[in-house]
Amino acid sequence: MATALRRERPAQSVRDRFVASHLWIASLSVLILLSAWGVTSYLRRGAVISETTSGPPAHSATQIRGSLSSSLARLESVGAGNLSADQRSSLGELRAQLADLEQRHRYIAEVAPWVTSGLMLVLLTMVAWLSGRATRRLTRRSLDERQAQIQNDETRLRTTICTVVDALITISDRGIIESVNPATQRIFGHTEEELIGRNVSMLMPEPHRRAHDGYLSRYVETNDPRVIGLGREVSCVRKTGEEFPADLAVNEMWVNEERKFVGLIRDITERKRVEQLKSDFVSVVSHELRTPLTSIRGSLGLLMSPVAGELPETARELLAIAVRNSDRLIRLINDILDLQKIESGEIAVNEEAIDVGSFLEHAVEDNQGIADKFEVTLELKNDAPGAMVYADRDRLMQVLTNLISNAVKFSPPGAAVELMLTHAGDDLCFAVTDQGPGIPEEFQSKIFDRFSQADTSATRKQGGTGLGLSIAQSIMELHGGSLRFTTETGEGTTFTFTLPKATEFHESSSQIRRTRSGDGVPVLVCEDDEDTAGVA
Known about the structure:
The chain has 13 helices and 14 strands. The chain is of the alpha+beta class. Helix 2 runs antiparallel to helix 3 and helix 11 packs antiparallel against helix 12. The strands form three sheets. Strands 2-1-5-4-3 form a five-stranded antiparallel beta sheet. Strands 7-9-10-12-11 form a five-stranded mixed beta sheet.
């Protein structure tokens, strides 16, 4: 915004000066025209101002000339015989002077318009010259300021492009490289001279190299965006022949009515390496930590059972603490493993027809223990009795358990957590409502992020890994839906999700399941043996 204001001020200053100069010139022109019109009118009337001690203060030249002519005529007619020679001579000179005055008056009356017109023409020419000069100066100044602004913008853009750490490549509609930034040379190992004028497919390995021109030509002809306007992960090749993964984003632009394409390429080699390290770590956790931890938990359970005999009360309390923490570690490891499976697409969603009413009753029963612990009541409201859905029973129970346990933990003692099922068109809507403090506004955008918790302090009242809602959201996405929530501070929060209703079917001796793999492809499994069908 500040940059835009700085750019606007010079242009505004130029416009103000331009308008002010033209207003001054227009005012001067009007003044000259009015003055010329007044002079012309005055000369046309032959106005002559004569001050006298008596009588009218002024007479026009025509009136004076008429009065003198009449007086001379009367004088000649009345006293022609009584005038001396000198008087008659003076009278003749007076008549000659009067005739000369009349001749000069006629000359002035004839010449004055031409003089005035010439004066106006000279003045208007001067005004036009001054106006043109001022306009040229202002235009030249405006052009200089505009050129300086363009140069500044070009410098800023060039600096920005050179600073970008990702490869930025501009190509023609035939795939010919027209410009590259320094990051392109650093990432691919080619110099600018080796890239300009070459086909951009030189930066791609086979078989993508052969297919690239087809992508461009197809887009130009049909606007089919296989790559254009979309981001995707691709493989690129360096000058040394080494292939590396990259994120590619391509968009089109028009320059001088010519179609161009600009591509942004980001080397994600390091990111892939970190992801592989994370995958290896998860594998280590799975094999080297989960197995002994499960054994420890089993041994602790045996010690707590009557099989081990009676234990002192202090020992039993210590074992109970060890059991709770073992369960907590197992849940954390299971959450991490589930998250890794979801990310890698290894998790399978085994859909089957589920009677939602009985399923929700089991969910309430399974979570009654944690509700009793927090002195919270679980209430089930089923407005869709007999309804059925296709879903993975275990994964759906995992989602509901997470939502119910969260609602219980954040509700005050004596409150009620409501689990509701309603019709939503062709879908069924599941809702879990608590009476807790609500979700802080600054945390709402991060609620489905991994390891995120509203209270991150070491003294927080409620435990947890911060992975439950993230995993629940991923499971619902595998089912083709998503988790949503509404919250109000001090009133509570409601989490909802929808699943499509199951179509009517008839039980048979065979078990029918719909299995959805990690990539979302449904598979129909038909098997007489229930256990064998469950393996799918």
